[in-house]
Structure formats: C-alpha cells, structure tokens
Amino acid sequence: MLTSFRGRLAVSLAALACGLSSPALAQDDADTDGVTVSANVSLVTDYRFRGVSLSGGDPAIQGGLDVAHDSGFYAGVWASSIDGGPSYGEMEFDIYGGWSGQLSEGVSVDVGLLYYLYPSEELGLDTDYWEPYASIGFNLGPAEATVGAAYAWEQDSLGGDDNLYVYTDLSTGLPGTPLTVTGHLGYTDGVLAPPLLAGDTDDSGLDWSIGASYAAGPLEVGISYIGVEGPSIDGFTDDAIVGTVTASF
Questions:
Q1: What total number of domains does the chain contain?
Q2: pTM for this one?
Q3: Which of 60, 62, 65, 97 could covalently link to 75 via disulfide, CB atoms 3.0 to 4.6 Å apart?
Q4: What's the CATH code of the domain at 58?
C-alpha cells in the first residue's frame, strides 16, 4: 500500500507505530491526466513521532491530502492535534513534496522535502523547520523493507543545531489473512534525540516499535508497541501501546 512520507516517518502510523508518524495515503479519489488525489483521516490513542509523544500521551486526530502524478512527483499536506503548550500550540501542520519511483524490479526510491509548521503557537517563537528525506524500498517476496534518512540542517527553530534520523522498516502480510505485521528501528543523532528531549545530556538515541494492522475496505485498524532510549517520562518518552484507526478516501 502506498503511503505518504509523513506517514512512513512518523512512528505512530499504523504501519510502524510512529509513528506512528503516520497517515496512509488513501485510495484513488480522482485520476485526471495522470493526477491522483487521495485523502485520509485517523484517530490515534497517542501521537508518537519517532517514539516520542507529541500529544501528551493522549489521543490525537490526524488527516492528510495527497496529490500524485504518474511521473512520480507528489505533494501533500498532513495535520495532527498535539499538546505543545504555548511554545508549539495545539496543532502540527506539515507540507511536503518529492518524487518516488522504481529503480529496478523490486527496488523503489523516494526523495523529498518536508516542512513542519506549528501555526497555533502563542509565544511568537520560530518553531517551524525544514527536513529533506530519502528512502529506498525493497520487495522481498511476501515482505517489504525500507531504509531511509531525514536530515534537518542547522536552523534557528532547532536552536541553531541540526538533526539526523536514520531508520529501517519491515512489514509482511500473514498468508490467508488481512493482517500485516510491522517492525521499525530508528536512530536519532542531534537536537531531537529522545534522551535529550527527556532532559538527558545524550544527543543520540534509538526508537523502535512492533505492531500489526488489519485492513477492511477503506478502514485500517492497527496496534503497536513503541519504545525509546533515555529517561522514561510518563506521556512523553515512556514505552506505550498505541492504537490507530484510519479511513481512506
């Protein structure tokens, strides 16, 4: 199933916990002159981005809209409710665009640029930032694997620091069932590392998840177990079980 980049990278997404970065691209809504428009809406029990809760451990509502062309170019927007306090507000809004396509049989590539915005922040701070990304996907028979990276260069919104995120995702369908089993392992080096966000001095750390999803028509239901390295703060960097319900249009 084709998914938006934002959905893939957020570990809260149903495919890999966020994931759970993460909203899946919807079914074709329109197809004119090679252009496909799709949309999705999700309810998650906790918005986990690279293992860290951005909703204070509480449920969040998410949704996105994607436009793709047969040439491989695409663009989209995605939003989620968050618990960011006065500094980040109550909503994250992402804009992204890029290109994806087949390098060879069973090997695909995806490259693009993502812009994170926090329009409801109340302090007038510079919180928005850019992040280019790239990934390679492999079809391994009944399984699929992805390796990727995202790099946010030094920006004022990141305190003048940078951040590198590398990850690998695995998924496989269970034969004879509508179930898909997923796994994720990510590593952050920089200002957004989970230990550093939790108050530790370590600016690097791992996040991981394992989960399963069930698809029935336009609906998909998923559950994932998510964990991160570093101090465990309740509703922020503690291990969590996250449920997701996604409707695609």
A1: 1
A2: 0.88
A3: 97
A4: 2.40.160.40
